[in-house]
């Protein structure tokens, strides 16, 4: 899950595993696998960085449990 900001400054959390694509229009338009879309203030690169960070946290937790 990643935290993002709508254009009206409202923060929300999205399941990044459901992201199908991100368009830059010039805001970032996130399209989910179910067809829903969200326009957010964060850039495409910021969103990608947050997804990578989230996935790294999941991997790190899994590694700790296997030790």
UniProtKB/TrEMBL annotation:
It comes from the Bacteria. It holds the Pfam family FlbD. Keywords: Cell projection, Cilium, Flagellum. This is Flagellar FlbD family protein. It comes from Lacrimispora sp. BS-2.
């Amino acid at each position: 899950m990643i935290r993002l900001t709508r254009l009206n400054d409202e923060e929300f959390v999205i399941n990044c595993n459901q992201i199908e694509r991100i368009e830059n229009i010039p805001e970032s338009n996130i399209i989910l696998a179910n067809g829903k879309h969200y326009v957010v203030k964060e850039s495409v690169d910021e969103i990608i960085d947050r997804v990578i960070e989230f996935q790294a946290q999941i991997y790190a937790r899994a590694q700790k449990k296997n030790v």
